Amino acid sequence: MAKIIPAHSALEEAAAALAAGQLVAIPTETVYGLAADATNGEAVARIFEAKGRPRFNPLIAHVDRFPLAERIAIFDPLSRRLAEHFWPGPLTLVLPLAEGSPVHPLVTAGLDTVAVRMPRGIAQSLIARLGRPLAAPSANSSGKVSGTTAQAVEADLGARIGLIVDAGRTPVGLESTILKVEDGRPVLLRPGGVTVEEIEAFLGMPVERFSGTGIQAPGMLSSHYAPAAAVRLDAREVREGEALLAFGPTRVAGAARAVAMLNLSEAGDLREAAANLFSHIQALDREGARAIAVEPVPRHGLGEAINDRLARAAAPRNDPPGSD
């Protein structure tokens, strides 16, 4: 069982554990991350072992300031503009590795690029205290639902890690948006906590969706975020033995027969829905339903990221396990 300590008194103990090569589950504004010193190969290997994560799936290197980011990666002008505007915050940039980058090759999964993000809060303070970047994928068993509370992390990983920093429920509730600039064009690799519309409004240019193959960043495996129950998307009715993940004020046919029901947002607010997504899926999964029927969620704004996570939760589970 992991030790849980409140964030306001966790800095010294958590930083000491990270410096010693241990794993620490930490809150960010997106989800809880399973953090290790990104320059320490043995520490990073412990992340893959604790999560059961395949080593071909790269990790995000988290930084607290630009000088550290510039030691890790090479910024083109457009990526620099994005970082200066959206950092700290839920935007990850995939960038070429800098010469002599201190990030261990396990973090990049052997790629010549590295995913970099600057988080807020205790995560940023821990990186500053450590003086080194943190690798911190979501604090969950690979392929399972990401944790948005310390208690969810403890229930999943508590037997495999020693320390969890508790700052309550994470405010965004979805992992970061991942973007890569190719030939001066922004390309979306994974939707997340910063919407495409926000990025396009800032840049004054369209964001392209990635259409290639292969894993270029975390969170690109087709099957992720999966509960034990099957997930059925865009449901127009509830079938016998199903739980219901609802959205908005109006219910689909047969809602009364649902084994259990939770609403992502009664008001139809996508930001509230994003914050509730993973915790509601976990709660419905505990009800023992054979499947979770999901009412349609709009695809604009944060709805793109919500639908991305739902589609990966519903995907056939024949990929190797892996989650952000």
Summarize the structure.
The chain has 2 domains: 3-209, DHBP synthase (Alpha-Beta Complex); 230-314, no CATH class. It has helices at residues 11-19, 41-51, 66-72, 77-86, 105-108, 121-130, 150-157, 196-203, 270-285, 302-314, and strands spanning 3-6, 24-27, 32-37, 60-62, 91-96, 113-117, 134-135, 163-166, 177-182, 185-190, 208-209, 230-232, 242-246, 261-263, 291-294.
Terminal Cα separation, in Å?
23 Å
- Percent range for β-strand residues: 15-25%
Helix content: 25-40%
Question: Based on DSSP secondary structure assignment, what is the total number of beta strands?
Answer: 15
**Level-1 CATH class name of the largest domain:** Alpha Beta
Q: What is the domain tally?
A: 2
Which structural class matches the secondary elements? Answer: alpha/beta
- The CATH superfamily of the largest domain bears the name DHBP synthase
For the largest sheet, list the strands in their spatial order: 1-8-2-3-7-4-6-5-9-10-11
Write down the secondary-structure element order: EHEEHEHHEHEHEHEEEHEEEEHEH
Sheet bearing the most strands, described? 11 strands, mixed
**What form results from the Cα inertia axes?**
globular
The value of Rg in angstroms is: 19 Å
Average pLDDT reading: 92
